[in-house]
Design goal:
α2 packs across α3 (about 95-105). Strands 3-4-6-5-7-2-1-8 form an 8-stranded antiparallel beta sheet. It has helices spanning about 5-15, 60-70, 95-105, 135-140, 205-215, and strands spanning about 75-80, 85-90, 115-120, 125-130, 160-165, 180-185, 200-205, 230-235. It is α+β, with helices and mostly antiparallel strands and about 240 residues long. The chain has 5 helices and 8 strands; from the N terminus they run ααββαββαβββαβ.
C-alpha cells in the first residue's frame, strides 16, 4: 500500500461514504479520491468558518432543523464561481428541504474550495467534495446526516438541472448525500435517473461553463486531471 492509498483510506472514513474507483454505469455517487493534495505553503491560512449558530446535525435533527430553516431563509438563487466561470442556479421552492440545505451550506461557506470531483462528458458534472482534509473538517462541524428523496414533484433530469446524489452507505431508499450535487450536461437529458435522485434546481445562466468543465480530461475514476475548484458560492438577488 502506497502513501496515496493510505491517505485515501483515512479520508474516506471521514466523509459520509465512499465508492468504487470507477462505476460501470452512469450513476451519481459520492466521491473517493486517489490522494490528498495539500499546499506546501505552511503560512497559508484557512478561511475562517462562520460562528456556529446551529446544532451539529444528524439524521434525527436534520429534517426538523430544515423545516424551520426554510421558513426563515427564502433565498432561491445562487451563483457558483468556478475556475471556468460562473454558473447561476435557481433552486426550486417545491423541494424545500433540499433548497434549504443548499442555502444553509452556502451561508456556512461549505462549498468554497470544494471541487468538481467527478466529470463525465455528455452525462454530468458532480461537485461538493475535495481532496483537502479541511473539507472533512467542515463536514464534521456541520454534522453527519442524509436527506430523504423528493421525487414526486414532476421534475425530469433535463439538461441543466441540479440534482442530489444518494449516499453510497447502506441506503436502500437512496437517501441523498447533502454535501454534494450534480448538474446534468447530457443532451437532451439523463432521464434514466428519474425516480432515483432529487432534482432541486436548474441552471439559469452558465451552461457553457458546465460544458467546458465536462470536456476536461479525467483519470480512470472520472476525476479531472487538473483539479477544478469551486471558488465561491453566494446567494444572488
Amino acid at each position: 500500500m502506497n502513501i496515496r492509498s493510505t491517505i485515501l483510506g483515512i479520508f474516506c472514513l471521514l466523509i459520509l461514504s465512499c465508492e468504487d474507483k470507477k462505476s460501470s454505469t452512469k450513476t451519481p455517487t459520492p466521491a473517493v479520491r486517489k490522494e490528498t493534495k495539500t499546499s506546501n505553503n505552511k503560512q497559508a491560512k484557512e478561511k475562517q468558518s462562520p460562528e456556529r449558530q446551529h446544532p451539529v446535525l444528524d439524521n434525527n435533527k436534520a429534517i426538523a432543523f430544515f423545516s424551520e430553516y426554510e421558513k426563515k431563509h427564502k433565498e432561491n438563487k445562487v451563483r457558483i464561481t468556478t475556475d471556468f466561470g460562473t454558473i447561476d442556479i435557481l433552486l426550486f421552492n417545491t423541494t424545500k428541504y433540499h433548497r434549504a440545505n443548499f442555502i444553509f451550506l452556502t451561508k456556512q461557506k461549505y462549498f468554497n474550495d470544494t471541487q468538481f470531483y467527478r466529470v463525465i462528458d455528455n452525462f454530468m458534472i458532480q461537485a461538493g467534495n475535495s481532496d483537502d482534509r479541511k473539507t472533512a473538517r467542515k463536514r464534521k462541524k456541520i454534522g453527519k446526516y442524509l436527506l430523504p428523496t423528493d421525487i414526486k414533484k414532476g421534475y425530469k433530469h433535463d439538461r441543466g438541472v441540479i440534482s442530489m446524489p444518494s449516499s453510497d452507505i447502506d441506503n436502500p431508499y437512496k437517501l441523498a448525500s447533502p454535501f454534494e450535487f450534480f448538474i446534468v450536461q447530457q443532451h437532451p437529458g439523463a432521464y434514466y435517473l428519474d425516480g432515483d435522485y432529487t432534482i432541486f434546481g436548474k441552471v439559469i445562466r452558465g451552461m457553457e461553463v458546465v460544458d467546458s468543465i465536462a470536456a476536461q480530461k479525467t483519470d480512470n475514476a472520472d476525476w479531472p486531471l487538473q483539479n477544478i475548484y469551486i471558488r465561491n458560492v453566494e446567494i444572488i438577488e
